[in-house]
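Bit of a strange request maybe. I'm writing a small parser for structure token strings and I need a real example to test against, not something I typed by hand. Could someone generate the tokens for this chain?
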Amino acid sequence: MGAWRCGLVAVAVAAAAVASFVGADAQVSRGILEIDTRGAVDVPRKSALVTVRIQTQGIPPLHVQRGEAAYNEIKVILRKLGVSDADVRDTSVNIGKACSYRCSELKKREYSYRANLDVLLPTIDAAVAFLGQLKARPAGEVSVGNIRFPLIDAEALVRTAQQLSIDALEAQASAMTSAMGGRLGDIVALRSRDNKDSLLRADRNSYRNNFDRTLDVYTTGRIEMFHNFS
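Reply from user aminoacidic:
Good idea to test on real output. This should exercise your parser:
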């Protein structure tokens, strides 16, 4: 772990050195740390708003029971961190028939349970602790979406958020590969980019790559992280 953290420090001054990061035939996971210097105006100062995604799949009613168990476990974690139920908002819950990756055909007898939660954490440190708790859970059911916070205390927040984001990306990539029976390898490269339009174009095409996952974090820059797979 220490080696790639050192790589994060170098990325700001040597981004061009990793431009040719992998061969064309390599399987990679691309995680994006999205930077927005405007900050998140709807999040109170020194707080963090974290979007948590829960997804389970299987034969009814077990998939719903697993999803609700994951939801309840998250609520317990948050209570231990001092987050009240009033600061956890369900943004969507969906229970429906499961489909293949490209949704070209429905999987027989299988259903999926999906839920999104917006969690308002009182401090950035609480967000770091919360994400650490999520990483300790079994792989494949819980992932992290957006992490938003105001940038009034920009320098300190950015350093914390960058580490938080890359830890989360590595956890997501590991969970994804484990669910597919694979093993996450070493980080191939970290790359800094400032061209927002090109990244947005890449994001819109990300559904074509089975190994592609995006985590958006509103801080002050952009970093791409690439893993190899085995």
